[in-house]
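Re: the multi-chain job from yesterday

Posting the exact lines I submitted so nobody has to dig through the queue logs.
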Amino acid sequence: MDEHEAELMGLGNLPESCISIILGLTTPRDICRLSAVNHTFRLAGNSDSVWEKMLPIRYRNLLERLDSPLHFSSKKELYFTLCHPQLIDCSKKKFWIERATGKLCFILSPRELHITWGDEGRYWQWNSRDNSSFKEVAELVTVCWLEVRGLFDCKVLSPGTEYTISFRLKLKESRRGVNRIYGHRAMIPHLSRPYGWSNKPVKFSVTTAVGDHQIYAMYLSDTDKPVADDGYQMTTSRHVEEGWMEFDAGRFFVHEEGDNPGKIDFCMGEWEGGNWKGGLVLDGVKIQPSSSFKEGMN
Amino acid sequence: MASGSKVTLKSSDDEFFDVTEAVALECGAIKNMIEDIGISSPILLPHVSRKIRSKVIQYCKYHVESQKPGVSEDEIKSRDQEFVKVDQAMLFELILAANYVNNQKLLDLTCQIVADMIKGKTLEEIHNTFNIKNDFTPEEEEEIRHENQWAFE
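And the result, structure tokens for all chains:
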């Protein structure tokens, strides 16, 4: 190769294999956009070697846990299929990939959680709803001891990512100005309207395997009401689709290598007030990159 | 396989160059050739110019030296970064050469630089900065944009 030819050397001269290596070091968004550069970029951008790098490291393990097997003819097709929630672990969990980043997200069904008094029909009922994440939601009839706990092994999550754990729920639609108080003797066959949520804020907490503990609080019926007087830090919450709300229990970082949060414990509870409360509908617990909220819905 | 053994490389401009066996073995393709034909004859590298050959050998040399104890990861990383401070033409030639002689470390290093350059860029910026021709018909391009709409938002 003489000096004259060397001057003409550019990105356009690289073989497809080199373009594949380069694209594999970018992002899904870049790969898709740059497939319009020229034929070589398009071919390289469709290759399995590139999309293998975009898929989550342990995707094969997740595929083994699917309720029903997926069929795909390329890694690129698999990637985009996994951008939609997939049921795993006997329908107790769903996972999906954030399209632009390739980060894993999970939602745990209420059946995956430990709900105190959850098996007693006079306290909690299991129903189906059109807009729920799973077949069933857990609907609170009435309790004075509200406690919902769960566990999640973080080793499956995307490295180099900060995650937020949130409880996804809603208070059943209530009539304005009405706030009835029911005693436990009133065995109501129909689910009651929400009540009992203005006495004490609900506490949300996360504990990592290495013992880092975070606890926050929020009044479910009035998210602006201060919780400092009760001795807590206010959590963050957001309205999401279909009338659901997400209340954050805590955040943690999954490192590239080395120290890992391990098995994370999380809890939503209110048992300090001693009062009866009801009318809460629990859809599940979401574990997603904290950056998902800043950028809005996928 | 004595580490002091010499291997002779011959580049596209017919120039001969000696390196230690350890340095030569950094490149997978050269390693394969040595395994097949030994080190007594020169290894021919017709697609590598003298300029590029000497850069690649420089890279291989200090990577062999960095395998000795006492060289930190950070030192290696910062030497790598210095090594790739070259103009675009040289960078792409290094990629081609690394691909040709199969030096995975050098290939990954140089490709990362290009990846960082293209991330987030629009198509116009890519076509202009790198002087690449768009070889799609308008219909083909429209189809690709439509398929990948989300990536253009």
